[in-house]
Structures are given as C-alpha cells and as structure tokens.
Amino acid sequence: MKISVVIPTINEEQTIGRVIDTIMENGNVEVIVVDTSSRDRTREIAREKGAIVIEEPRRGYGVAYKRGFESATGDIFVGIDGDGTYPAEAIGPLVELLKINQVDFISGDRMTLRNQYNYTMLHFVGNNVLNIAIRIFFSYRIIDSQSGMWVFTSDIYRKMKNLSDGMSFSQDLKIEAIRIGKLIEVPIRYGVRITKPKLRAWEDGFSNLFSIFVKRVRNMAARP
Q: Fewest 10 Å CB contacts: which of 34, 83, 118, 208?
C-alpha cells in the first residue's frame, strides 16, 4: 500500500531534512511538503530530500493540509509536523497497526507519555477542556483531541465534511473519523520543540472550543 505523508511548513529549515529522511526509510512513501511562504531554506531542503513541494501562500493549518491531501495519491494518508516534535519513525508501525486492527484512523496520543519538558501544563489543561467538550457534544472519550500526528485511509478522508481551514482542522478530522468510521489512539513520544511555535495558546484554544460547538450544530443540521 502506498503511503502519502503531508507536512505543512513555515521556516523549518533546522528540522525538515531530518524529518523527511526518517519518513523515507518506510519505503514506498510519497512526501508532500506544503510550504506557507517560508523565508529560509525549507523548500530547497525538502526538494533536495526528494519531497514534492507545494507552495501555498494562503495561511491556515487546515488550508495547508487540505492542499496536500488533495494532491496525495496514496492509499494511506499521514499528517505530521515538520518541526521534529512528532516521531516520524513511528509512521511504519502505526500503518501496520491500522491494517492489523482494521480501523480507519489512528491518532497519536501525546498525553499518556507526556512530561514537563515536552508538554506544558497550560497546553495539558487546555487540551483536556477541549477533550471534555468533544465528550459532551459527540459522546466520545478522546485522550488527545489536539494531536497533530495521524494515520488514516484515503477512503475515509474523502467522506469527511466541514473540515476547518484553521487550527481546528485537527479536531475536525477526529470528529469526522468518529462519526463515519473507527478511530483509535496510540501513545507516541512527543519531542521537545527547537523552533518557534506557531500555536497561539489562548486564541487558538478558544477558537477550537467554539469550533466544536459549530461542528455539532452543523452535524445536527445535516441529519435527514
């Protein structure tokens, strides 16, 4: 089965080469880097490492991923950041788990193995608030609703609706996977970030909370 890995980037020259090298060890892998106007050598390094580079001037976490998945040709889609915080070496094992367990979507769980260095208390509390909101509105207990590492079938992605263009794209993916397929979470080791974070903790947190409510309303309105 062919694997397509989509990586959204902006100024990741310090880490993108190592991330792509690790991904390429999985064999039949298509690596798509969707770059949002990086001002460093991110695009050049990605091309040198064998990745397909798509330049996307529009800002938005969801915008970048949608552009990448639209271009992907694999049977299995993978989403991962380019900053080296997510374990690219886990892609192969997660793909195997997807097949062995006959599930549609695997989300990496950073919470189970978290420590004080790789995940702050503010992010931990905020994540749990969003987890509770998903449990209330969608009756599903999720451990890490904000994880940015996923492995899923291309088939289930094509059935998903109302995916955000912003940061809530990640939680939207999981909610849609719960709605139309089978999702499981697998603990992963989250690394220490060495590049500047893109997340705006308070602003993105409140925006994601509101997006959960909007997602619920849209799903109810779509019911026959």
A: 118
Stretches in the chain below the pLDDT threshold 70: 118-119, 121-122, 193-206, 217, 219-224
Contact predicate 192/118, CB 8 Å: yes
Ordered by start, the domain boundaries in the chain are 3-222
Indicate the residue type of 88: A
Query: Rounded to an integer, what distance in angstroms lies between the CA atom of residue 25 and that of residue 114?
Result: 26
For 3-222, give the CATH class.
alpha beta
Distance (Å, whole) CA 201 – CA 119: 12
**How many beta carbons lie within 10 A of that of residue 125, not counting itself?**
10
Instruction: Using CB atoms within 10 Å of the CB of residue 100, give its burial: 0 to 12 exposed, 13 to 18 middle, 19+ buried.
Output: exposed
Q: What is the pTM of this model?
A: 0.89
